[in-house]
Design goal:
Elements: H1 2-27, E1 30-38, E2 44-51, E3 54-61, E4 66-73, E5 76-84, E6 92-99, H2 100-106, E7 108-115, E8 118-125, H3 131-150
Parallel strand pairs: 1-7
Antiparallel strand pairs: 1-4, 2-3, 2-5, 5-6, 7-8
Amino acid sequence: MVRSRWKWVALGVVLLLIAAEVGLNVLKPSEVLVKIVNGGQEPLLNVEITVGAESSFVDRIDPQQAHVFLLSSYGKTPLALKFNQLNNPLSDFVVPEFDARKLSQEGSVLVLEVRPNEVARYVEPDERPGALGRLYGKARGLVEAPKASNGP
């Protein structure tokens, strides 16, 4: 009888921890990758990307190269890109309703390709593992680590 009670208590604790984890995941901001591609012949200089109150900066992106930013955001917010490039009259670009949560759920990366006189916007699949993939990787690492330490 006592063992049965402890099983129910343990089950209740596990369910409570799962509910807390789900609740915290809903409250945290969505993380998404934004890739800036320099499609021009001159380097991009002083590249700054802003989403809500968060801002990231890189000094230089060489021609035909890319830089990936990891950004986080709550809901739909403007995304602003500012840069300097020789022979390019553009110096900024705005996505008025950037939805990081939607991109994150779809497993996508926002790509902004800066070309002379234009910025092309498209999405690519995110190659990083999702939440379940990361959890599987951690669990697999915990299971395989003891096997490796036991020796032949």
